[in-house]
């Protein structure tokens, strides 16, 4: 199993290390892929908002954006895509939801990685499947159920 993670920090602060991101990506993807390349960019609210507005028509920053790479058939490349994570939104959400900060970071990485390989949560049954996978992956990292307090 080999996942090449290009981590780009566009902001500073109490951020996970590159090895944290690597561990979370491997946990998220190892059941589905043997290898792959992923870029994770940790950004400001301004950059997140601009991308969210451009690609999702939502004019506000968001926690994580996933941009899967569509590999043309017959091209032997393992690029899975890009994750854009807004540090400030992750910190705010963790605080508001009374979650450990790095546990929430892990959840956002796992969530984004699952989007990169085709999972979604638009329909209720898809959301349930994706949330169950997130719970299992996070449990393997000794992280509590991120949905435990939601009703």
From TrEMBL:
What SUPFAM superfamilies does the entry give?
A: Metalloproteases ('zincins'), catalytic domain
Q: Where are the transmembrane segments?
A: none
Per the UniProt record, which EC number(s) apply here?
3.1.-.-
- Which co-factor is required? Zn(2+)
Stored Gene3D superfamilies: Metalloproteases ('zincins'), catalytic domain (3.40.390.30)
Single GO term (MF)? zinc ion binding
For this chain's UniProt record, which GO biological process terms are given? rRNA processing
InterPro entries, sorted: MetalPrtase_cat_dom_sf_prd, YbeY, YbeY_CS
Keyword Disulfide bond in record: no
The alphabetized UniProt keywords are: Cytoplasm, Endonuclease, Hydrolase, Metal-binding, Nuclease, Ribosome biogenesis, rRNA processing, Zinc
Identify the residues that bind Zn(2+). 111, 115, 121
Is Phosphoprotein set as a keyword in this record? no
- Give an example GO cellular component term for this record: cytoplasm
**Cofactor, how bound (note):** Binds 1 zinc ion.
Q: What class of enzyme is it?
A: hydrolase
Q: Where in the cell is it found?
A: Cytoplasm
Question: What Pfam families does the record point to?
Answer: YbeY
Lineage: superkingdom: Bacteria
Q: What does this protein do?
A: Single strand-specific metallo-endoribonuclease involved in late-stage 70S ribosome quality control and in maturation of the 3' terminus of the 16S rRNA.
User: What family, per the record?
Assistant: Belongs to the endoribonuclease YbeY family.
Protein name stated in the entry: Endoribonuclease YbeY
Q: Which gene encodes it?
A: ybeY
């Amino acid at each position: 199993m080999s996942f090449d993670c290009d981590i780009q920090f566009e902001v500073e602060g109490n951020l996970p290390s590159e090895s944290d991101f690597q561990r979370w990506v491997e946990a998220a993807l190892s059941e589905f892929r043997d290898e792959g390349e992923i870029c994770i960019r940790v950004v400001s609210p301004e950059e997140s908002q601009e991308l969210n507005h451009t690609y999702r028509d939502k004019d506000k920053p968001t926690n994580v954006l996933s941009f899967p790479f569509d590999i043309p058939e017959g091209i032997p490349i393992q690029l899975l895509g890009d994750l854009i994570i807004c540090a400030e939104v992750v910190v705010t959400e963790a605080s508001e939801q009374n979650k450990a900060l790095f546990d929430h970071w892990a959840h956002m990485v796992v969530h984004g990685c699952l989007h990169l390989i085709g999972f979604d949560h638009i329909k209720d049954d898809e959301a349930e499947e994706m949330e169950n996978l997130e719970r299992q992956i996070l449990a393997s990292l000794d992280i509590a159920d991120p949905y435990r307090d939601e009703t």
